[in-house]
Amino acid sequence: EQSVVEALHHQKQANIAADETATELKVEKRIVHDVEAYCVSSPAELLGLVQTLNRRVFELEEKMKAAELEKSRSSDELVRASKQLAAGGFAGALARTVVAPLDRIKILMQTQFIQHKGRPEKYKGTIQGLSVIF
């Protein structure tokens, strides 16, 4: 259960990081476009500014790729944790369903001499005891 909660939290953080990076990237790309289209500076200044902004866009694209990869990993962790939770629950339910009647027979066989003083044993074995119970 703790693993599922952690996986959900990690998934949420990865989604937030990916969304923030995507927003930053859109803003930077828009700035590059605006500078290229409307800036009326000297060619050297314009070239330097465009190169700086292009580097920033590249960095943000790399950051976005990393965030998307982390988002994918956290999604995989959530699926894995959910499968483990379901498998554990199913195994526990199945084990309890099979073991409970056998425990009941064991206890009845251990205590039948107290309940039936002087009378013949009611439960002679596991299979016979299960047939009496069911």
In words, what does this structure look like?
The chain has 134 residues and is mainly alpha-helical. The protein has 3 helices and no strands. It has helices spanning 2-38, 43-115, 126-133. Helix 1 (2-38) runs antiparallel to helix 2 (43-115) and helix 2 packs across helix 3 (126-133). The longest helix is centred in the middle third of the chain and has 73 residues, at 43-115. The chain is rod-shaped.
Question: What is the compact description of this entry?
Answer:
By secondary structure, the chain is an all-alpha fold. The protein is built from three helices and no strands. Helix 1 packs antiparallel against helix 2 and helix 2 packs across helix 3.
Key terms:
134 residues; mainly alpha; 3 helices; rod-shaped
- What portion of residues is helical? over 70%
Helix-strand category: mainly alpha
Biggest sheet, open or closed, and with what strands and sense?
A: none
- Overall spatial form: rod-shaped
Q: Say how many strands there are.
A: 0
SS summary, helix count:
3
What share of residues are in beta strands?
Answer: under 5%
What order do the helices and strands follow? HHH
Q: What's the mean pLDDT score?
A: 81
Separation of termini?
35 Å
- From the alpha carbons, calculate the radius of gyration and give it in angstroms: 34 Å
Low-pLDDT residue spans: none
